[in-house]
User: Fold TetR/AcrR family transcriptional regulator from Actinoallomurus spadix.
Amino acid sequence: MAPRRAAALRGGGGEQSLRAHLIVTAERLIAERGTAGLTVRAIARAAGVADGVLYNHFADKEELLAHALRARVRAVERGLGELPEPGSGTIEGNLRTYLAHGLDLHRAILPAFAGLLAQPEVLARFADLTRPDDDWRDRLIDYLRAERDLGRLAPQAPVEPAVRMMVGVCHEAILSLLLRRSEDPDAAPVPQDEIDAVVTAVLRGIGR
Assistant:
């Protein structure tokens, strides 16, 4: 017998499948309370279905959480706006935008990932769902390579090390912010002058 449809889906014309409803529900719970201690029962109750319904649509809890985590990342990215295109504006200004975007993205999603450190299977499933050129880091690499091809960067600009430097700055800054907020909930994010300093350092290595 097919599982009873969730109350949220009944009468809705079938616009949303139960599988999609479970992903949306889990993503909302991740946004509200993080991933630590998030159980199948909590997701099922929030979705308005029996606990076992999840297993009619996902192999296990880890698969659902991986899809929900990916949905959470995509939701955060949509709220951060568009990234600059190669050849537009100035490289210095564009790198500031990329770095600020990366910092905001990491600040929003890192708590969810931190809650899954004891569940490496979920992180592995999430990595499997990520397509090439699908995340901020890949887009930054593509952007700098395109700028190099356009001649706006040095011909032999070491793009990959520059990107690793910017990604590392995001990780270090947000981890430090999370630690400070454990003692001071009002701790401020990374100030603009620090973003400017990082961009200046990167451009010294890859600029013309």
About this structure: The helical segments are 18-33, 40-47, 61-80, 91-114, 120-129, 136-149, 159-183, 192-206. Residues 11-15 have pLDDT under 50 and may be disordered. The first helix runs from residue 18 to 33.
